[in-house]
Amino acid sequence: MIKNTIIFVLSIYTFYCQAQHSVVKLGYPVNTDYLNEICPVVSFGEDILFFTRNADPACEKTLMLDGINIYNTASTKEYEENLKMVFSQIASEYIEEPLSSGYNQDIWYSRLKDGEPYGIFHPKYPINDVLPNSICANYGKSNTFLVINQFPPSGGIEKGFSYTNFDGETFTFPKPLHIAGFNQISSEINLTASIDSTILVLAMDDGNGRGMDLFCHLDQEIINLPRR
User: Fold this and answer.
1) CB 205 within 8 A of CB 211
2) Are 106 and 127 in contact (CB under 8 A)?
3) Is 4 exposed, middle or buried, given 0-12, 13-18 or 19+ CB atoms closer than 10 A?
4) Fewer beta carbons within 10 angstroms: which end of the chain, N or C?
5) What is the pLDDT of residue 17?
6) Distance (Å, rounded) from C-alpha 143 to C-alpha 75?
7) Does a cis peptide bond (omega within 30 degrees of 0) precede residue 153?
């Protein structure tokens, strides 16, 4: 039920600039001409670049409902009808073409060598299914990562966040990350974590009518960051 669309832009200006960095667009296969690549996350070891692709027809097709992968057991028509139903529930509006919608999000990654990506990898279930999947941030100094949404083992999707471990090739099934006081209203949300994982910062709309705000999670409590 969560669409990960928040973009943070940080600009730092100084009159005396000792170092300059230019923006260089990454080439194929990381970037494509016809899809959106979003939500880049570099591993703590700086050897892997994770990112999310939107509306890719080659996405992971697994759809777990009541413990059954509908993609493998249902007819094409039944699968497509179930997909429309699930995506329409996520979007709170009818979705005619689920796979070409922005809610079709898969995690991809590339190895990094001397800061340059090489190779492209598309992990399968359980880290990816046909529902919205995206890595938000590193979670500590190990190969643990935060992902959007929560995924009951029997299937479906719930609002929130999960964490998963990566062994260099495969991911563990995402486990729910319990955040006391979490009250996400809108479909737009993002999260990042401190290096030691003791501080979580969320960007979300808590329904107070003031739009998106930043919230800090400290000592099992969510605190609204002060306004100027």
Assistant:
1) yes
2) no
3) buried
4) C
5) 46
6) 38
7) no
Copy the structure tokens of residue 54: 């939107």
Strand-pair category, 158-165 with 200-204:
unpaired
Distances in Å between the Cα of 81 and the Cα atoms of 93, 96, 129 are 15, 10, 17
CA 38 to each of CA 1, 7, 87, 186: distance values in angstroms, whole numbers, following the listed order:
18, 9, 20, 19
Among 61-65, 105-109, 146-150, 184-188, name the one with the lowest average pLDDT: 184-188
CA distances from 138 to 66, 159, 163 (A): 31, 19, 9
pTM of the model: 0.84
Amino acid at 86: V
Distance CA 161, CA 30 (A): 25
At residue 220, the pLDDT reads: 55
Distance CA 54, CA 69 (A): 22
| CB of 146 closer than 8 Å to CB of 134 | no
**Residue 34, SS3?**
coil
DSSP code of 172?
P
- Written as one letter, the residue type at 152 is P
Residue 136: which H helix or E strand, with range? Answer: strand 135-138
Rounded CA-CA distance 64/100 in Å is 20
Is 30:37 a contact under the CB 8 Å cutoff?
yes
Q: Which helix (H) or strand (E) holds 158?
A: strand 158-165
The CA–CA distances, whole Å, from 168 to 4, 103, 143, 174 equal: 24, 27, 8, 16
Neighbours of 170 (CB within 10 A): 12
